[in-house]
Design brief:
398 residues, 3 domains, Beta-Lactamase
Length: 398
């Protein structure tokens, strides 16, 4: 054997060794006969022993239905003469379902017709599972399994896209009443179980193509697509209220919850996702203000009230910095002896833009937002009332 022949043989053995030790499955089939002329060790996971593959066709190695499918695919690639990449599902000889990523490369030896088809298959099952897990974590609530805020915003934008084709949809914003008391009195494990139960019950009422999401805390949102009428929305809400009101068994405790619900309908109430969410939230605020366990549809007057409230809240915050609050003292006279027993402290807000604001307007807002006027605490008394709580009980009366 000549030196050149020995070198060529040595090079071929070297290349065969490399190919045989590649972790991905490498095969080459003859374009005319569609029989295998090369198969590395990794093909064992699909076809069995590699030595049993060489010289055989797909129909001699696989069940007829699967062989027909892959044979037709390979013939189409050979006729097209172009490289393609694809992912597909495959059941191995041991019964395992895997996902394979394939690179299919037609080979022309002398630049003429395709003579061989090189296929490189890589098992990407674990990678795909990891990707799916990351995708789930990015778009779904880990506690309840429903969509999270991120996915919900995508879904509501999609709903607006569909609206271009004359469809109507409703956004239902739901907040559990007094949920904090459940966490405080029974513990967070009970609270978590309540949230899981509520999500499952919502899914019993709401199915595809509609969407359910947990936006955070005890807030849920629902997109009702293609609603035919206002009555249909009310009917769905009635079913939601009904399933939520059923008792919940949570960690050995029987818990009862109610919900406040706000509803906004597109396109009548808003033409974009942010505005629709805001308006549903405003309607929800009105439902909670009405005592909870009820629902409200958004109305334009609610937006005006909301904007006025926000403006007063901002002015209230500035009033603290600008010392616009003043204390007045009203004497408390005993009827038996007509002597002054003490004084009741009266808080007044003298706003440069609003004038004298009634305590009935700003004190509830101060209590709700936590923007308490500092003079109350600076004087260190509660209108001579021991054990008083909150602004409305601190002698701060109109």
């Amino acid at each position: 054997m000549s030196k050149s022949s020995k070198d060529a043989r040595k090079t071929r053995i070297f290349l065969d060794t490399i190919i045989d030790n590649l972790p991905m499955m490498v095969t080459v089939i003859d374009a005319r006969s569609q029989r295998f002329v090369l198969a590395n060790k990794a093909t064992e996971t699909v076809f069995g022993k590699a030595r049993n593959v060489i010289g055989k066709s797909l129909h001699e190695l696989l069940p007829k239905a699967k062989a027909d499918e892959l044979y037709a695919r390979d013939r189409a690639i050979i006729r097209a003469g172009q490289r393609i990449e694809l992912d597909y599902n495959y059941t191995r000889s041991n019964g395992d379902d895997v996902i394979l990523s394939a690179k299919m490369i037609p080979i022309r030896i002398h630049g003429g017709d395709v003579e061989y088809l090189l296929s490189i298959h890589e098992d990407i099952t674990e990678n795909r599972l990891t990707e799916n897990k990351m995708l789930f974590m990015a778009h779904y609530d880990c506690l309840t399994g429903v969509g999270n805020r991120s996915l919900f915003r995508l879904q509501i934008r999609e709903a607006f896209e569909c609206h271009k084709y004359d469809t109507v949809f409703a956004l239902i914003y739901l907040d559990l009443d007094n949920f904090k008391s459940i966490n405080d009195s029974l513990g967070h494990p009970v609270g978590d179980q309540v949230l899981i139960s509520i999500a499952q019950r919502l899914l019993e009422v709401i199915s595809e193509p509609h969407h359910v999401a947990r936006l955070g805390g005890d807030e849920f949102a629902i997109i009702l697509k293609g609603v035919p009428s206002l009555e249909a929305i009310k009917s769905t809400i009635s079913r939601i209220i009904s399933v939520i009101s059923l008792p919940i068994d949570a960690c050995g405790n029987q818990v009862f919850v109610t919900a406040s619900i706000g509803v906004a309908v597109a396109p009548d109430d808003a033409n974009d996702a942010d505005a629709l969410l805001r308006n549903a939230d405003i309607a929800l605020y009105r439902a909670k203000k009405d005592g909870g366990n009820t629902y409200e549809f958004f109305e334009i007057r609610m937006l005006k009230d909301f904007q006025e409230r926000r403006a007063m809240e901002n002015d209230l915050r500035d009033a603290l910095d600008n010392n616009e609050f003043k204390l007045y003292y009203q004497p408390l006279i005993g009827l038996d002896h007509h002597h002054v027993n003490g004084f009741e402290a009266l808080l007044r807000w003298d706003s440069p833009s609003r004038g004298l604001v009634s305590p009935a307007d700003f004190i509830p807002l101060a209590e709700e937002t936590g923007n308490y006027p500092p003079p109350i605490f600076g004087h260190g008394f509660c209108g001579f009332r021991p054990g008083c709580r909150g602004l409305s009980e601190r002698g701060l009366r109109p």
